[in-house]
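Thread: Newbie trying to understand structure tokens

Hi all, I'm a second-year student working on a class project, and my supervisor (Dr. K.) asked me to get a predicted structure for one chain before our next meeting. I've only ever worked with sequences, so writing a 3D structure as a token string is new to me. If someone could post the tokens and maybe explain what I'm looking at, I'd be very grateful. Here's the chain:
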Amino acid sequence: MNSDQSPNQGQDKASSSDKLQDPLAKQLNIAEELNYDVEAELTTQKSLNLADRSDYSAIEPNQPEKLASEIADLKRQKQTLEAEIRALRESKNQLLSQQAAEARQTLTNMVKEGMRELETQKQALQISIEQLERRRERIREEMRTSFAGVSQELAIRVQGFKDYLVGSLQDLATAAEQLELPVYEEWERPTPEQPSQPQEETTIPQFSKGIFQDKEQQINSILDQYRLRPDYYGPPWQLRRTFEPIHAERVSNWFFSQGGRGSIRTMGSRLQNILVSSSIISVLTNLYGDRCRTIVLANTPERLGEWRRGLQDCLGISRSDFGPERGIVLFEDPLAVVQKADRLLEQNRLPLIVIDETEDAINVSLLQFPLWLAFAPDPQQMSSYMY
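---
Reply by user tm_fold:
Sure, no problem. This is what the structure looks like when written as tokens:
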């Protein structure tokens, strides 16, 4: 049985060894086959010895010694083969360990290489970001520089406008007040037919610095109401926004110190200037009703649109309140303002002319009217809405 199985097993091992590609595995298979053959032969010899133990007479006298010698040789071969198998196994383990170490090293190198590439890309991105940030700062600096240049030119023009206002406007206003205009004389002089008829509601007052003194208590009461008890949902033509003490001071100075004719230093933004103008319009509407008509002068449609939206918001009025025959009129040309103000005076109306800060100079013809308000730029602090 054992002798029959050994060739088949050897063939199986041979066939399996053919499939191995690794030379080390082939050597291990060959060593195992040799070891197997030695064991098979030893087993065969033992079986023969057991089978023929009864017949020692037929064996030659020196045959046991030969068999013992052969068995010893086979054992030595077996030991040699086992040693070789162990050595091959150790070599195999060493090779496997070496291959695993090489694989780990290769993987580590690949990871390091990938990390280096990512680090390089990161540095490149950082450099690009820094370049873009520097470019952004350079563009901002150019914008600031360009704006500074424009602002310098505007400051020169504004300074000239200020000098004009400080040096000439007061003289012109005084001269205009001293002019004997027939229209004013007719309004101020009572008609002979009705000498006792009051003229306050049917005539336009000749405003001067003291014209509002008799209405000081009423005006201050209105301003205090706006400042202390603001009504954000009040009726139209009443101020609906927060009114600060600085606003009240500017408005009070315009009424009582300037007599309703003069310039006010800008509040720093058009919206703040609109708030001051709205408070003045509201006070005049409270005093004179529908007779007061406001004319706004600004040199671009965009600024006029901002005035319209701001006045609507501050006074609670609608777009229908703006127009040639309505409460507020918007103009870009000073001559058109003069013509409109003349027609309003002829209609027994009281025109209030509001001049935007961006007007470089005031037309002298505007100074003849009883009420006008001009916003003067502050050269020390350029306005944030100049465009």
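A couple of things are worth pointing out once you decode it. Confidence is low (pLDDT under 50) at residues 1-7, 183-209, 383-387. DSSP finds nine helices and five strands in the chain. Feel free to ask follow-ups in this thread.
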